[in-house]
């Protein structure tokens, strides 16, 4: 055994004699399979050797919330390339053709990665694979963490992996040619990057075994980890071109020669630059996706943070998972604006990196300008190797050397800024070291201040024995790099008397509060997002604040009022961040949670968006003033209505012909003797869908009623609101409506942020009504709104209506509160006691059961009944037998265990007991909607059967809202 330097790393070379059974080494032969991905459209890609058209799975092949669209193609190294979106794009092929791996095997491909997956469950991102890791057969070519290239080959007894040198990854944002080969004569796997050897591994003295029973997948692992019951992990994200599988062996000279030949065949002998920019047009027509609010070009967004102004531009960053619309693998997205309302997307600013304080995630933080070198970013670094997993880090831009005021490129310092040490004294206890995140940083009079969100607890050893409440820990320094000195807790809430702000404060923000005309007041606002260790029904719903004074000498915040106040009434405004603009305004950004299920996120391809930035100030009466920033008026398009000094009845008449799903509405109304003023938005003519914004003059309460906001049973509804005083006897209302996004601002003192998801295309009307007396409309203006991005706004698309001349399955949604209409065929696991209105299962999160106008409390069948044996109980439940009618499409909500043979809900043909379709729970409690197209069986007698023959963990199944179009007799 000797070693050689390969790509900067020491790589062992094995020169053991070839096995007696080994065949003579053969160079690479003609391909047995080749995918060029040169198609310009369509949902298939052609395998060139056999001519087979292989399907390309893609979330929008059959889109739910927008028009169908094809998988994304871009320019490739030569011709076209296929773009893999990281969570839905996968090619399914039958196999690698006529291939005998005993003669050698070579797989090569061009790739241009967009992002690196975390390596969930230790599995690679698969570029191409046909393997069975349990049986140790087949092959996989893929990427491990931070782009490290790997090739696996199975021999039945061993699954051998060769890794590329860590400093020779498949670089993000550029084309890399990857080749992997099996050499039976040398008993060796070799891995090449751009024609250069980067790794070897020895193999057993036997022939490899293919996994012929497995599909050959391009872009997804054969055994992917299922996240949240919905998302496949271990998938590739980026462009792929020219995937080739060949018999025979690639050696070093041949690899170099082939790569040189590839370059020589390209124009100018240069590899083109890949276009990896996410295009917003991918979501054109999405009926729920906001258009004039800031949001990423796709996938997951959480709180926007680190707003900063520099050289005429506003920058905002945000929590982002580039791999899909789910939480994980958090990066910092980045956008830039000249007015805080019109935005341009910029490249990802920060990504998890091996040599950074955040190899396992770059979580929230803040920004501040450090003189001539420009803004610096403070972030939370996730590192699972640490005892407490979290610390704060620093990143700087290349502006001092590059001069680009877009600030597109950032470098993270390798050393952390502040750590989470054990035993840190904090008020009545000790800082909760396991929760140490979200730095908020500013500089004042030469002193840098850093707030870090945490909690206060008592420890017994390493065990938390008591939780006192949330806090923000104060640090100071003379320069961003530190050293930083701990100064104690800024403030905290006592859980016993003030439980609302939670056990931990996330995203603490401390901003000066100017007066109504911008003058200094000496007051500050402290805002926090509550966090709880266990499931809490109020999690990710509220933002609390105090008004008070920041004592710089004692590093403490002294509130003017002991009880914290809720910033927004709607339970969607969370994750505050803020800064002071050049003209002295204190401006807040926020995330607007969309309250959709994991399945809805997967089907839409995006999750969450930012709220409209708001200005906050101190009113003359000492209360908080809040309104959208003045720049929001720059999004206005054509004025649709201008109404002055009239009755509510006349104003409503003039609104009859005005409609829209992107509107800015301003109103000033004198209630006079009216008891209720109501503005209906997103309303149909028959009121089957409408969202009501109301002011009750008796209760002095402003509220939103979403009980009829959507006919979709999977949409969250409800009523929310709070107390608001009239302003000199007048109701001043501003409403920003952006598809599913709704923000209401009342009297400049309160906000209400919510989401609505109408299903009907005509749910765009406006209505104004008054009850209990005659009110006067002093002003009412409505404007059409333009988009926030430099692209035309595509009209929202809606599904055609389904047949209505059908009946429903008896008690299809268990609204009776029992099993009326259903028959217990056998067992004890199903009974009336299983029908519940519980919104959560107590230890993890919400069911997200159906909410309909007939059953607003949300009855559903929870298969786990602790009084009847829990998971160990079994049984069979059957619906009434009916004749399938309408369009033959059956759908239901299902969750619970993942056992397709013993635990399922099925549609069964009555005459012969044949199962026509079945659904399983995927080992999650949160419901997902399953749809069966049984149009071929229209007119047949069918029933729904729920089967539980499973015991032990996850031995139960849950169902709700079983929709069967029943032919009327």
From TrEMBL:
Determine if Protein transport is one of this entry's keywords.
Answer: no
Q: One of this protein's GO BP terms?
A: carbohydrate metabolic process
Q: Which organism is it from?
A: Streptomyces flaveus
The record ties this protein, via InterPro entries, to:
ConA-like_dom_sf, GH32_Enzymes, Glyco_hydro_32, Glyco_hydro_32_C, Glyco_hydro_32_N, Glyco_hydro_beta-prop_sf, LamG-like
Q: What is its EC number?
A: 3.2.1.26
Judged by the first EC level, this protein's enzyme class is hydrolase
Family classification: Belongs to the glycosyl hydrolase 32 family.
What is the name of this protein? beta-fructofuranosidase
For the region Disordered, give the residue spans.
268-288
Task: Give the compositionally biased regions (Basic and acidic residues).
Answer: 272-288
**Record bears the keyword Signal:** yes
- Which positions fall inside the LamG-like jellyroll fold domain? 103-256
Any one Gene Ontology molecular-function term assigned to this protein's record: beta-fructofuranosidase activity
- Keywords attached to this entry: Disulfide bond, Glycosidase, Hydrolase, Signal
Gene3D superfamilies, per the entry: 2.60.120.200, Exo-inulinase, domain 1, Glycosyl hydrolase domain, family 43
